[in-house]
Amino acid sequence: GLGRLAACFLDSMATLNLPAWGYGLRYRYGLFKQRIAKEGQEEIAEDWLEKFSPWEIVRHDVVYPVRFFGHVEILPDGRRKSAGGEVLNALAYDVPIPGYKTKNAISLRLWDAKASAEDFNLFQFNDGQYESAAQLHSRAQQICAVLYPGDATEEGKLLRLKQQFFLCSASLQDIIFRFKERKSDRVSGKWSEFPSKVAVQMNDTHPTLAIPELMRLLMDEEGLGWDEAWDVTNKTVAYTNHTVLPEALEKWSQSVMRKLLPRQMEIIEEIDKRFREMVISTRKDMEGKLDSMSVLDNSPQKPVVRMANLCVVSAHTVNGVAELHSNILKEELFADYVSIWPKKFQNKTNGITPRRWLRFCNPELSEIVTKWLKTDQWTSNLDLLTGLRKFADDEKLHAEWAAAKLASKKRLAKHVLDATGVTIDPTSLFDIQIKRIHEYKRQLMNILGAVYRYKKLKEMSAEEKQKVTPRTVMVGGKAFATYTNAKRIVKLVNDVGAVVNNDPDVNKYLKVVFIPNYNVSVAEVLIPGSELSQHISTAGMEASGTSNMKFSLNGCVIIGTLDGANVEIREEVGEDNFFLFGAKADQVAGLRKDRENGLFKPDPRFEEAKQYIRSGTFGTYDYTPLLDSLEGNSGFGRGDYFLVGYDFPSYIDAQARVDEAY
């Protein structure tokens, strides 16, 4: 999600002729390729670089050293410097990002990690000690091997921190080099000018180490004092928060940080100390809140660095990614900081590039839009689409629109046949939920709804079935490799599909398909062919979501909760064009409390759907641990934290309204 959003931003910035570029890591094996086997999801390494990537340009002249471990040296003049440890090189690969109908391209600069020839021990190698001879080379290879390596082990945590620092250090050294290179073009090359030439936007907390690393570069390499370096850093960096999920707000062990990055840890400690002093001297009333607001959590059990706090304390601006989410940040997650810096927090609702997500992926619909608007200027100015409103009742447009949708549905059906071997009917309602598999996104509610629908179909007479709206339910998305419940959900969708799709009594009226290996290319086929899309997260948990925008732009209706950007989409498309259900964000905490106190009464339809799975209708796999997450009133992994049971009845009712409308 973060990467796709960044890709959309780059496309838009290039098209707007903005002088901007992106920085990332060149992951050799990506996240993973998803295969569906008997046991459910299997992860295999992505081979996107195996046959060479034609878009990248390697820059052998752009190389920066990045130091891990070691110690802090104090120089005769009192300045401090990192020394010792291991030094790897960051090598730049540039991917050009062309703007739409512009004369320029901007760049996405991806770093690869390399060790130098000096680090290769020829003596050991000739002595047959091949592994130890190339130790640093193999450590360099690990850094850019995969995105989000498993962090259940200490080694995994250390590798993630290494990746984050490697990205930050290389990128900032590059930015400073470019700034100094251009000093000669200007009258003065003062560091105070740096923030007017450079803005660094941190895309979530993963690049938070940019803060202490920029401070280190300015002080230790460029000779600035603390106050000047802090002023430059604060005016340069801004932070986008992408989640309120506590497990996603990064917290790093202080001892790991101190070992891997001793100088940066000193700087973090100083930032924390000065922040505490500032609060105590200017806001006596906030002193009681300091323990939760400080950058360092010094609890004796597990002292950690809180990255989101470091971002808020250090950045000049903090934004959320949809109106509801930004309000939650101000009222809940970062409420204490708002009283110190009321102007620091703002909203920037996420967006998508209309070039990829309409013009390119849906040629039939794009042609119709251009024909009726008599211009293709909408491709870089979507507001022009409102010009279609005056044709809203034109039956000729309706016919063309329907034909375009059918063409997209046929293309989608071919993809499904090729990828899964399942034949689906392009005249049925295409109902799609594609996004990462996560309990808060509630794919479980979707599949429970499909199970309930299947059970009702089985109970109907032939005549009753004739009145049913035929529907094809498609679910796609990757589950994180170690997220057990998410992987159980993937397996359940596949198991339900295997039974439903092969049941001659009902498969004219319902099919359930899991779409494997969801990615951008798959989305470009699925989204144009969709008619209903599901954005059904527990209210208050999806910061924004952006596929909701892509589906809407392709003439698809949403069934969803009042969450993330759904709220703003519903305002734009009108309440009658949005199938709304479920609890509101401000009700969730109270409903969880009620549940704990044993006040929740489940709907019989919810019980029926769960029981149907428990009965073994969909095979012998034991879904008890997954279904148990919906049972009980409290306890770890129990008590239906994401309110599937509470929202299920209104979800089923909304789906009935969908059938009727279709």
What's the arrangement of secondary structure elements?
Blueprint: H1 2-15, E1 21-25, E2 33-37, E3 40-44, E4 57-68, E5 71-74, E6 80-83, E7 86-98, E8 105-114, H2 122-126, H3 130-133, H4 135-143, H5 154-181, H6 194-197, E9 200-203, H7 210-221, H8 226-236, E10 237-240, E11 251-253, H9 254-260, H10 262-282, H11 290-293, E12 296-297, E13 304-306, H12 307-314, E14 318-320, H13 323-333, H14 335-340, E15 345-347, H15 354-360, H16 363-373, H17 395-420, E16 429-434, H18 443-459, H19 462-466, E17 471-476, H20 484-500, E18 510-515, H21 520-526, E19 532-535, H22 547-553, E20 557-560, H23 566-573, E21 578-580, H24 588-596, H25 604-614, H26 624-628, H27 644-661
Parallel strand pairs: 1-8, 9-10, 10-14, 14-15, 16-17, 16-19, 17-18, 19-20, 20-21
Antiparallel strand pairs: 2-3, 4-7, 5-6, 7-8, 11-13, 12-13
Helix pairs in contact: 5-7, 7-8, 7-10, 9-10, 16-17, 18-20, 18-25
Query: How many E-type strands?
Result: 21
Strand order of the largest sheet: 18-17-16-19-20-21
Helices, by number, come to 27
| CATH architectural category of the domain at 425-661 | 3-Layer(aba) Sandwich
- Biggest β-sheet: count, sense, barrel? 6 strands, parallel
Question: How does the helix and strand content classify structurally?
Answer: alpha/beta
Based on CA inertia axes, which overall geometry fits? globular
Low-confidence stretches: none
Average pLDDT for all residues:
96
CATH class designation of the domain at 425-661: Alpha Beta
CATH superfamily of the domain at 425-661: Glycogen Phosphorylase B
Query: Strand fraction band?
Result: 15-25%
Do you know the CATH topology of the domain at 425-661? Rossmann fold
Compute the separation of the termini in Å. Answer: 30 Å
What gyration radius follows from the Cα positions, in whole Å?
A: 27 Å
Share of helical residues = 40-55%
Enzyme class: transferase
Modified residues (N6-(pyridoxal phosphate)lysine): 550
Keywords: Allosteric enzyme, Carbohydrate metabolism, Cytoplasm, Glycosyltransferase, Pyridoxal phosphate, Transferase
Protein name: Alpha-1,4 glucan phosphorylase
